[in-house]
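Chapter review: from sequence to fold.
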Amino acid sequence: MLTNEACENIIQIKGNVRGAVLQTDAEYIKRYCGQEQFTNLKDTLQRLGYAVDYENISAMEWYPLGRRVLSFRVMQDLFNWQEEEFRKMGNAAPKYSFIVKLLMKFFISPKTGLSNASQY
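The C-alpha cell string follows.
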C-alpha cells in the first residue's frame, strides 16, 4: 500500500502530460474494469489527497506527470495489475484518444489511415 512519503515522491516527478492522456486512462478503466472500479480509483486518489477530476479534464491542457504516475500506482494496488495489464491499456489507448481521433479526422486521408492503421 502507498505511504504518504511514497505519494509525495511520485507527485514530485517533473514533467507534464496532456489531459487527453488522463481522459484515455479513465475511458479504459470504465470500459474494461467497470464504473465501480473507476469510482474506486477516483475515491482512492481523493483519500490520498491527490484527487483527479476526470470528468472536467481538458484534453489539450497540461497536467502534472506525477498525477498520472500516482494513478498508475493506485491501479496497480487496486486492480492487482502487473506490467502486462499496463501494456494492454497502452495498446488500447489509440481507440479512445482524443488526439488520435483528431489527427485521423483532419490530417490523414482515409486511404492512408487504413493502410497504416496496424502501426497505430
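Two observations follow directly from the output. The two ends are 35 Å apart (CA to CA). The mean pLDDT is 86.
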